[in-house]
Specification:
The protein is built from three helices and two strands. It has 81 residues and is of the alpha+beta class.
Length: 81
């Protein structure tokens, strides 16, 4: 999925965009918040990792990837977003 996002971004925006991949596995929170707070776009699967959108700067965007077949009724983050 990461390669797909990088390829689409390059085709649309050229090489003027820097793409960083951030893992939200248990790590120190400060470096993650620093990266997200400089992002223009946050792309992630539904649920927990998108909670970092709280740290996005003004005028940023979020793309939520919702897996096919996942029940929206059992996905509490959708009600929040």
């Amino acid at each position: 999925m990461i390669d797909c996002i990088k390829n689409v971004s390059k085709k649309i925006l050229g090489n003027s965009v820097k793409i960083s991949v951030v893992s939200f596995e248990p790590k120190e929170i400060v470096p993650l918040v620093q990266k997200v707070s400089r992002a223009k776009l946050l792309v992630g699967l539904t649920e927990g990792s998108l909670s970092s959108a709280l740290f996005l700067p003004k005028d940023s965007a979020v793309v939520e990837i919702f897996p096919h077949g996942l029940s929206q009724e059992n996905t509490p983050f959708i009600r929040v977003s």
